[in-house]
Amino acid sequence: MSKNLASKAASGLKWGSVSTIANAVMQIGYTSAMARLLAPEAFGLVAISGVIIRFGSYFANMGLTKAIVQKEELEPQHIRAAFTASASLGLLFTFLTFLLAPLAADFFENPDVTPIVQVMSLAFLISGLSITSVSLLEREMKFKLLSIIEMVAYVLSYIVAGIVLAYLNFGVWSLIIATLLQMTISAIGAYVVVRHNVLLQFRLEPYKPLFSYGSRMSFISFLEFLSQEFGTILIGRVLGSHKLGIYNRAYMLVNLPMYMLTRTFTKVVFPSFSKIQNDIQKLGKIYLSSITLLAAIVIPACMGISVAAPELVRIVLGEQWGESVPVLQVLSLALSLSFITMFAGIVCDAKAVLNVKIVLNIVFILVIGSLFYLLREYGLVGFAFAVLVGELARMLMYQRVMHNVLELSYSQQLAIYLPGLLNGVLVAAGIYLVSALLRSADAPVALTFAAQALTGAVLLAVLTLLFPHKLLRAELQMIFDRMGLNGNGNSALSRMVHKYRSSILKEA
């Protein structure tokens, strides 16, 4: 990786992390407030409309976002073509979704779905107008600007408008308006920064390279959408909006923190991988490094969430959401695998190995669809177990793909999970002991949850920094180098860093 690319990647990780932490704190507060102001049915209705909008977005987008980032040589005519196509498709799908909304209501047997989907159809138009600007910012790895735009948009739309509207009894519409407002503010901010050419492109030639890659990416994204949203579709169809609201909030409680942990990496990794897509050895090394670090954080965090699920639900959502606890405990284990496996998919995207990814996703859909059917009698927990087993199967399938694409042995790929699994077991055990002690003493829920969070954080920090697995030592050395902490100075900090690197990390 060149110094310039490494510098941009490091800067992207730094600013992305700032945005991630800020958004995580705000989303926890927002989620907690809205869960107390709105009923589960409201979240169920929004989940249904979200599935429909995401369904259409994979065709309205046509993979142009990643096509702009992935293309090695991007000329002005390609930018005009991308904007013309995305804006036109956005307008078309807004119109089609508005007209077809009653069919969605019939499918879910809920007439309240129609007006919500019709208003949410505006998301296609807003997204179509902003895709090009956001993609150009990601391509140039200007993550500082993206982070600022995202934080401002989130505060104004969700924290201010969303909560105020919910307090004023706007019900489900407070969620809808906040979502559309956030998209609008982000779109305006991105275009103000980039100011790309908005003249329409009528020549066909510039569209060919974009749609050659983008159309396959769009199809893959659609397949991934089906695999991810089977639970939402089936629960909404069979069990109704109330049960779907319970499942959706449980999914959110683990998906949100894991998404926040990984979103910074994924934003930076895809353009970075794309720029070195032809250097298999270097790409393989960075892939293993990224997964080792990510697994060491994600797996312990998810296992900790599983143990602390009863307190987490009561603190964040409230007493009335107790039914989501067992669902959250199973989903937390499943989604840890999902977020780690995601990086193998990014490698396929960067190297344009898309046909294999299409086959893999079709197989995964068949596997998880069968599991949903077999476990349907167990209700929401059965759906959650189907997701867990499906993610295990997908992880094994991607091992085969990475073996062929990056020439990585299976032992290399399995080894990268070891530090995370070991730390996860120890973190979960520590949180369980603290939880059992405080629960038996009838300690206040807030105190128990605070003790769980503190125990998990301290154990993870100690295990990762003071007793790092041998596979993590080299990665920690690399992080210290990137941060400029080489321990060569005379300051107290430099001496501490030198002592730490020479003792704890000496075997790296």
TrEMBL record:
UniProt subcellular location: Cell membrane
UniProt cross-references to InterPro entries, sorted A to Z: Poly_Biosynth_Transport (IPR050833)
Signal peptide start and end residues: none
Assigned keywords, A-Z: Cell membrane, Membrane, Transmembrane, Transmembrane helix
PANTHER family reported for this sequence: LIPOPOLYSACCHARIDE BIOSYNTHESIS PROTEIN WZXC, PST FAMILY PREDICTED COLANIC ACID TRANSPORTER
Entry's family note: Belongs to the polysaccharide synthase family.
Protein's recorded name: Lipopolysaccharide biosynthesis protein
UniProt source species: Pontibacter mangrovi
Lineage per the UniProt record: Bacteria, Pseudomonadati, Bacteroidota, Cytophagia, Cytophagales
